[in-house]
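User
New here, help please:
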Amino acid sequence: MLFPTHLLVAAILGRLSTLSIPWLVVGAAVPDLVDKSLGLVGIVDLYHTVGHSVLLLVVAVPIALYHSTGRAAAVGWGSHLAFDTVHMVINGRPADVLSLGWPVTTPPDPLALPPIPFLFHYIGSPSFFLEIALWLVAAVIVLSDIRPDLGMRRRVGGDE
């Protein structure tokens, strides 16, 4: 999934919950900010490593239990991992889910593309169309906030 869409999903989660939208977005940004940076400077060969590892639960859970901002950041991080997992599976690369166990497990044939080549590889994939749908949902939510007359209100009897 593309980085901006992870941020969008976090914002939608904030809109649908009482969690802090800024902290959800921060949490959703962390995996790619960490792993893409490590990959680009050559510290690791893959772009899903420490930031995408479920082994970080040992850090995320105590932070989430400590305060609501930590909870929001942990949920944002978790949403990033969840949507990356969906992306890997629907794009026909379920073995890539093993990257969630890094460094204990790694995919047998990882994609290992830097961000820009990945973008060109990704356009037109099934997951790409899922992202378009998410952006359309976000547009409807924003438009319903701006223009309540567009029909997002729930009708209760009558012909309002």
About this structure: Residues 153-160 have pLDDT under 50 and may be disordered. The first helix runs from residue 3 to 16. The radius of gyration is 18 Å. The chain has one domain: 3-150.
